[in-house]
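A reminder from the course coordinator: this example appears on the midterm review sheet, so study it carefully.

Given structure:
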């Protein structure tokens, strides 16, 4: 299952690049989240930046470390 999830995350990144939603230098949302300044995608500059700078890296880390959450509300937020 993890390889299928990794593939889907790669597909999201590829599509974001294709449609011009990928930033060469996104803000460091990881640091902002760690400081408590970013509680959800609503606090990010845009949903696309949140996907690139926070969601995708965190999702990839969860897949690699097999620490996937038991549920998610990302679909609802999108």
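Designed residues:
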């Amino acid at each position: 299952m993890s390889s299928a999830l990794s593939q889907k995350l790669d597909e999201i990144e590829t599509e974001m690049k294709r449609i011009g939603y990928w930033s060469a230098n996104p803000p460091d949302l990881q640091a902002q989240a760690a400081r408590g300044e970013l509680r959800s995608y609503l606090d990010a500059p845009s949903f696309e930046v949140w996907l690139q700078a926070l969601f995708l890296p965190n999702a990839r880390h969860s897949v690699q470390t097999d620490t996937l959450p038991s549920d998610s509300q990302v679909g609802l937020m999108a």
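The helical segments are 2-18, 29-34, 47-65, 74-77. The first helix runs from residue 2 to 18.
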